[in-house]
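Example 3.
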Amino acid sequence: MLTFRDDLEEFARISREYPGGIRRRKSEGKKVFCYYGNRVPVEIIHASGAMPYPLFDGGDAGPSEAALPYLLPFINVQALYQVGQHASGLNPIIPIADLIIIDCKESDSERVGSAFEFLELPVWKLGVPQDWEKEIAFHYYKRQLDKLKEELEGITGERLTQDKLVQSTKQYNRIGELLCKIGELRKEHPPVISGEEFIKLNHYALRSDPDAAIKYLEKIYKDLQREKSRFTEGAQRIMVAGRGFTFGDYTPLRIIEESGGVMVTELLDEGIVHPEAVKVDGDQMENIAQTYYRDMVPSCLFTPSWKERWQRVDRLIDEYHVSGLLYYMLSFDVIYDYEYPLFSKRADEKGVPFEMIESSYNFSREATETLRTRIESFIKICRR
Amino acid sequence: MTKKKDWHREYLVRCAGFGDPPWDKELDEMLEKWRKAAEKLGLTEEEVKYAVTEWIPSNYDIGLEGVRKTIGVMTAEATDMMMATERKARGEKMVYGVLPAHTPFYRAFKFTDPSVNVYFVDANFISFVQPLFHKIAPHLDYAEERGVRYGCRHCALNKTRYALLRQGLVPLPDVSWIWGFICDQAPKSDEFIKEYWNSEYPIIFSRWSHHGRAFEKEYQNVEMVKYLASVMREGYEQVCKVLGIEVDENAIVKALEERMDFMLKYAELSKLMAADPPPIAGEIPLLLAHGLWAVFNTGYVYYSDALDATLKDAKTKIAKGEGVVPKGSPRGMMWFMPFCNPFILRMFEENGVAIPFCEGLLPSKAELEPPKFEDPFEANAEAFLKECMITNWGNKAELTLERLETYDIDFMIWGFEDFDRWLGSDQKLCQAYVEKKIEKPCFYIEGDIWEDRDYSEEAMRVRIETICEVVKARLAATI
């Protein structure tokens, strides 16, 4: 009988083969749409008949350096990474993309789009007004999605019908639902799945065909129900907040676990499947806009957002019996750099230990050991 | 026994234009206000003396009335700002604006109700205290000790606003109308101030996702203009409601016309700056350009006078064939001039090279054309989208090419905005694009226009000397 770990490894293999599959199918005439940012609805891309490919790689300092001829050194390191990765010839999909859709809710992501424009790549900048509570802003976003839909139809030559949108939405809803259920298994103590594994499942799901993702997530959910935790009773239950862990950026999560903690819940904006189900009755474009703009946790970049984001963190801390809040900061991520002292203050008021760790994707021995010391100290504080 | 010099008075007379007519009539009144402002700012008599005798004369040609009056404009506004707390206590209405805001709306508040006070607290404060007294660092340090980390390279403007508010140097306004069209940091800084420090801080957000494609002329994109206009209208109406004033569209039209008149006059100065040699140092026109992107609670009376005096100075110098460098010297343009650290421009001049233009603030040809849209909000949205600071990187690069040609500039420098995810982050793209199109030398210098804690004067001197040598060699090779 296959175990959780066997299925996880198999899912990893499927996900790793996804780019190869895209390249093969591209040569057969299939269209490829890359997307960057969590306000680009993958449901629309998938429904268009094209192959979606999320851009959110990181975890290695080299490619970020390669972006410096085009961008400032002080924009956030994962934005630099996307440009540097392409400039270094390391991204297998960007060069063959028929369109790269950029979520323009922030300067840094918009600049990734600008650098791609400079490099003569096909870029579509999606306008995402940040004042998400306003009616006019919602309608603008909705119109932007309608325009995107028209653009995709123009490229694929196929009509993006309501039926196709509903079908695609149902698939991604199922993925979100399964990941949500898997994530909630971490309410048990000790949890049966680690934070690193959970983040990887999200990444594999984002970089797989949705049918394959559903198949493996269903198997894994079943596996986990009979899985025994490998963590001890004394493992500290850590919540992580921040922009997100990119594909390939797993070292901090590993160090948490090696230090006697386990990430049991998170508030991450990117690199994670949104758990909010999109409605499937009525105008599907409207439903998608509603979920991506209003129902998801407001992005850190939106205004206002911090009150609501902290309320979410506060609730998760209680629901998941969190013993410490860790903020994962990417270098020069200037808006998140405002969020962390706010969360630190609120955590203090709530009596929950707080720590911030910062990454420039430099995981040299020296940098890693410094990070380890910091996390170990934090876990010790959580134990008290 | 010699009488002890009153350095505050000396400052106003020798450096700030209050010894010149007609401002001299206000000298005593201004001196009283200035003393209080200087005390509040922590500017000691000794520091004022140093500014009068060393810092300002070595960085500005205060022999020119236009220069003195330009310094006077900034001084008058900072002095007025330091009285804002008393005004607020007296019940006067107050609204703050933060870059990148569009100034006519803020002027329109004052046209509608002259008792409303409008301050661009951070921009006008830092543009006074750093270039003239080299003293922004304590305020930045203050903010950094209270949640805004030094290491993340936050914008000095936002740190300044936070520090001024938290130190009580300016009061909580009735409303901070914060825009964040393109810039994320400004609105999120205000949200941070409210959430981290004072929940009473009243903010109205007006935001817009900048998604213009490369080379797209956003001001011709009807949907974009109309949406931006609706955002502007919504924000404006909210602010009017808070201030208890009516929404007067005529006031908005009047303010837009005033801005256009000012821009046309400013364009005249830009033309004079193209003379060989440039008649005055580049940061003076830059300081005068504040009237295009920030609002002064003191209004435009001082401003117009300073601009007129500067135009007169420039014409006189040109007639005499005089300038900041010898005739025939190389002339460069910076995308944004580090005007708060004036010693940088002096270093260029000491090396026989002039930097007469700050490109980001030069009105483009499109900006000097009347608006196509008739609705006052749409006309303002159109004007805003024409601005060089607002448009996409491709248009910015094209504008650079336009200006290099219009003003016959020898070389171009980007940089000094490495902290600025809004204005700085596409400069390398612009540089690469411009370099491909023309054969003029292009440079990029890491740095910060607002402060100089991160680089030493000597390190900058070495870089500038090298640039000047390269420019001279390149020019010599093309003759």
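The two ends of chain A are 41 Å apart (CA to CA). Chain A touches chain B through 50 residues (CB under 8 Å).
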